[in-house]
Amino acid sequence: MSTAQETAGGEVEPWEEVTPDAARRLLIAAVEAFAERGYHATTTRDIAGRAGMSPAALYIHYKTKEELLHRISRIGHDRALDILRTAARREGSAAERLADAVSSFVRWHAGRRTTARVVQYELDALGPEARAEIVALRRQVDAEVRGIIEDGVASGEFDVPDVHGTTLAVLSLCIDVARWFTVNGPRTPEEVGALYADLVLRMVGAE
Amino acid sequence: MSTAQETAGGEVEPWEEVTPDAARRLLIAAVEAFAERGYHATTTRDIAGRAGMSPAALYIHYKTKEELLHRISRIGHDRALDILRTAARREGSAAERLADAVSSFVRWHAGRRTTARVVQYELDALGPEARAEIVALRRQVDAEVRGIIEDGVASGEFDVPDVHGTTLAVLSLCIDVARWFTVNGPRTPEEVGALYADLVLRMVGAE
DNA sequence: GCCCACGCTAAGCGAGCGCTCACTTTCGGC
DNA sequence: GCCGAAAGTGAGCGCTCGCTTAGCGTGGGC
Q1: Mean pLDDT of B130-158
Q2: Residues on chain A touching B37 (C-beta within 8 angstroms)
Q3: What GO MF annotations does this protein's record show (chains A, B) (predicted)?
Q4: How far apart are CA B197 and CA B103, in angstroms?
Q5: In whole angstroms, how far apart are CA B203 and each of A199, A204, B82?
Q6: pLDDT digits (tens, 9 = 90+) for A30-48
Q7: Residue A4 pLDDT greater than 70, yes or no
Q8: d(C-alpha B76, C-alpha B78), whole Å
C-alpha cells in the first residue's frame, strides 16, 4: 500500500483519526459490541474487555458510554457522506454517477457491516443534541442522492414521477444491506453493489 | 364492520387472538415500548405501567420479558406471511400479484409501524430456540416473494438476471419502510405502497 | 537520581434491573 | 354465606449496570 492510511483497495483505513491508540482500540471494540448485541445490551465491561483493558480505562478516554456511540456515529456518517459526495461530483452522466453512488454506498454497508449497523440502527440511543447533529448529516446524505436523480430527470436520462419517494427507496435499498448482509453469505460486497446499482437504474427508468 | 374481528378496511384487528384481556393489554404495551426504545432499553416496569398495572402483574401472564417479545414476533411474522401468501395465491398475472404483494406488505410496515419495527429489528434479542423458529418463518416470507418473481420470469413477463438477489432487494425495500416511516410524514401508507409497487415492477422489467 | 504527570487498575458506590413472594381482593359454584 | 381459584398488589431480593475514586507503575525532563 502506498501510505499507512490506505489499504490495497485504496480505501482509507477506518478509525485512523482516533487517537491515542488505546482510545482507538476501545472505539473499535465498541463498534463490534454495538453491532453484535446493540447499544443497550452492550456493557462498558464488555467493551473494555474486548479492548484488553479494565472497565475504568474507558472513562479516561471517553466521558460516557454514549460519547463512544456518538463518536462512532459521527465518523461513520461522515464517511458515508464522503462516499456519496465523491460519486455525485465525479465526471459522467447522471446514470453513471447514480450507479457509482449506489454501488460504492452498498459496498460500504456490506464490507463495513459492523460499522454500518451501528450507524444506521443505533441512532435512537443517542441523546437529543447528538441525535440532532446526526439527523442533519442524514439530510445531507438524502440531498446528495436526490441531486443525482434530479440531474437525470432534468437531462431526460431518467423517468421518475416521484423524485423524493424514489430517493427514499434508493437509500432504503442501500441501508437495508447492513441488516441482512453477512460475510458467510454467497455474495461479495462488490457483487451486491453491482446488482443493486443495476436495480436502481431500472427504478429510475435509465435502461 | 361485518364482524368484531374486522375493521372497516377489512383488516383483521390485531392481537385479537391474545387472551385474556389483561394479557393483550400488556402485549400491546410491550409492542409500543419495544418499538419506541428497543427491547433492551425497555423495562418490565415501563410495560406494566403503560398497561396500567403493577410490575408483578406481568409475570402472571408471561414467564419472562423475552416471552413477550417472542409472542409479538411470532404473531407479527404470521401476519406478514399471511399478507404475502394472500397476494401470491390470488388470480392474476405475476405482475399483478407482485404489485399486490409489495403494496400490501409495505402498507402493513407503514400502517402497523410499531409492530413491524419490533418484528424486523428485535430478532437478535431472542434466545436461540425462539430465534430459530422466527428465522424459519422468514425463509417462508422470502420463498413467497421469490415464487412470484420466478413465475414472472417463467411466463416471460419479467426480465430478471438474478432472481435470488432481486428477491432480497424487493424485501429490503419493503422492510426498510418500518425504519423511516412516520405518521407525521407527508405520505400515507397507501401512497408509499403504490409507489413502491411501481418501483418494484420497474426492477423486474415488467413495464 | 529524583519527580511527577500520565495511563491504568482494583475496588466499590448508588441505582435500577428482572423477577419473586406473601398477601389481598374478586367472583362463580353450591 | 362460605370456599377455592384466579388475578392483582406492595415490598423487596439478588444482581449487574454505568460510573467514580484512591492509588500504583513507569518513563521523560532536569
Answers
A1: 96
A2: 124
A3: DNA-binding transcription factor activity; transcription cis-regulatory region binding
A4: 5
A5: 5, 9, 24
A6: 999 999 999 999 999 999 9
A7: no
A8: 5
Report H helices in A38-188: 44-50, 58-61, 65-88, 94-111, 113-121, 128-154, 163-180
Residue B101 falls within a domain, yes or no? Answer: yes
Q: Does B25 share its domain with B91?
A: no
Q: Check whether A1 has a pLDDT greater than 90.
A: no
Digit-coded pLDDT (tens) for B140-149:
999 999 999 9
Domain that holds residue B82: 67-203
Interface residues, strand C, Cβ cutoff 7 Å: A 20, 22, 48, 52-57, 60-61; B 42-45, 55-56, 59, 64-66
CATH of the domain at A128: 1.10.357.10
- CATH code of B26's domain: 1.10.10.60
Question: Does some domain include residue B142?
Answer: yes
Domains of chain B: total: 2
For the cut 50, the answer to whether the pLDDT of residue A144 exceeds it is: yes
Q: Mark the nucleotides of strand D covered by protein, meaning any atom under 7 Å from a CB.
A: 7-12, 16-22
Cβ within 8 Å, pair A121-B121: yes
Would residue A171 count as lying in a domain? yes
The CA–C1' separation of A1 and D26, in angstroms, is 35
For residue B180, list chain A residues with Cβ-Cβ distance below 8 A. Answer: 168, 172
